[in-house]
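General statements about sequence and structure are easier to judge against a single worked case. No coordinates are needed to read the tokens, only the vocabulary itself. The sequence in question and its structure tokens are set out directly beneath this paragraph.
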Amino acid sequence: MDDQEDRWIAASASALLAAEYEQVPIEALTVRRPGLPLATAYRVQKAAAARRIAGGARVVGHKAGVTSRAMQEQMGVDEPDSGVLLDDMVLPTGSTMARSMLMQPRVEAEIAFRLGCDLAGPDVSEDEARAAVKEVFLALEVIDTRFTSWRITVADSIADNASCARVVTGSMVPLSAEMDLAAEPLVVSVDGTTMVTGAGRAVLGDPLRALVWLAGRLHRCGDGLRAGQLVLAGAVHASLPLEARSTVRARSPHLPPVELHVR
């Protein structure tokens, strides 16, 4: 890779980090570089994450994004993307978050996993993915964009860590053999009013397939999913705006609820 490309990647990562820190959005990368390759966008993501890790943040997992048809239609794409979860992005259920900390936040309810063993390789099966899961839980993912609007491409989102800002984790329970995550219906409410519903099958037909896809993507760049890591499978519905002075809650029949208070 030539020096000019390396400098552009480093500069783009720096610009994204500065936009978040200063809360001043920047122009989408694809405005100046139409047709930005996804591989290059992932290099920007990796460079920005490396800067945060050097500053003391720790990788605690990964997210698969744009895994449902609803989110693909909302984003205008036809394939998933992925981002890195750092420890300073994760909040327990019941937490209060300041809306002013983010720029254009939206929220999604998801089924998520904690792995009991490593999951890596080019051809991971669904059975292997299920066997690697130690616990399953509901999560609220707060997405945000450091660009001037949500009119972005999947390459822009990838560079921006797949638009991931915060993750709220519900209580974790063992993944039992009889649990059918594809059939699990999620109900999302804001201030007690149901806003949207969606079932696990909205995510690639089964949330476990998000693990399969993610293991394959990470393998292609020499990485993998590790024991103890958290993995978000992706939203089961189109994202909702996140407003100040509100409470967002997701619940389902077989998983403990998850709740976020926004001030």
